[in-house]
Amino acid sequence: MPFLKINYSNKIEVTLGGAWDYKIPSSTIRQLEQIPNNKEISLKLDDDFDLDFCGGKILHSWCNNRIFAQNELLYNQKSKHILKELDSSQKPKDKTLHEEIIVAHKDSFKIIKSFSKKLYFAFGFLGEIISLVILSFIKPKNIRVKAFFYHTQESLIKAVGIVSLACFLIGIVIAYQGSIQLKQFGASILIVEMSAMLTLREMSPIIAAIIIAGRSASSFSAEIGMMKSTQELDAMSVMGFNPITFLVIPRILALCLIMPLVVFIADLFGILGSMFISSLQLDISTEQFLERFLTMVDERHFWVGMIKAPFFGLIISLIGCYHGFIVAKDTRSIGLHTTKSVVESIFAVIAFDAICSVIFTELGL
């Protein structure tokens, strides 16, 4: 049977003896619990002391709340082994409901936090750009004219060739597919109105915007991102130059002001493609096509496409520059944000075009 001797003379001396196993009486456990836990204890083991995991569990819990000047449980081979096993098999602390919710939604919180951070930065970025654009119009000398013409050439003039070819081919596709359907109803001549309306209102602006987004958004992100990774943006700030005034404003102005010209060229080549296939497939001569185009196609279809053009430029330039500024200082991040800028700008352009299409139709335009 286990027994317990307690001496309260100068300091608390506790001596454990007997077999501490599942037969430990409750009176012995109460004796243990009554020992004050705010004084040092000298714990000794009698010669016949023995211990199993049942007794070890009780002593282990009791020892955790006590201060020991001496603890022979830690020197006895068997008790040392049992206490070590009990330490390693301790159950984790029960989590509160609040902690459980945090653990269960840990990833969701990270996503929300990351999204909120990006949203905060995006609104700050947009607000700074708006204020600087207004300031640039108040003080035109702040506009970097040389940079404006450079980006006009790099982002738009060099893209005119591929935009023209793409719209010419799209015009061929629209006219060819439309002619097959219209032939069945004996209304081949309506191909002029159909192809012209589709080209002017939707296809030419959206194809031009997608090509410009693929070229310019990626270019803006890569250029500004590389400047950030090489700390050129920090150097500009230290020297007193605002990076947005020097890098973003010329790009935005270039795309917003020149994009209508690109869409006009796209319209022209789209109509040429339709005219070409109408002549081959439907025997509609160039003179007939142009005469019907000028008399039957409403001018408002042209202006619907042109109105959207500067907004396409604004969307592409904002997204491209924004991703350049949030690039981390490594090359992998530059590639990642370059890809994101292209994907997001194309999606934003298509979404904006869809909204405009519905609004203009509802307005009777």
Automatic annotation (TrEMBL):
Alphabetical list of Pfam families matching this protein: MlaE (PF02405)
Listed transmembrane segments: 119-138, 158-176, 188-213, 302-322, 342-360
Keyword Transmembrane: yes
Keywords annotated in UniProt: Membrane, Transmembrane, Transmembrane helix
InterPro entries: ABC_MlaE_roteobac, Permease_MalE
PANTHER family, A to Z: ABC TRANSPORTER PERMEASE, ABC TRANSPORTER PERMEASE PROTEIN-RELATED
Family (UniProt): Belongs to the MlaE permease family.
Name of the featured protein: ABC transporter permease
Organism: Helicobacter ibis
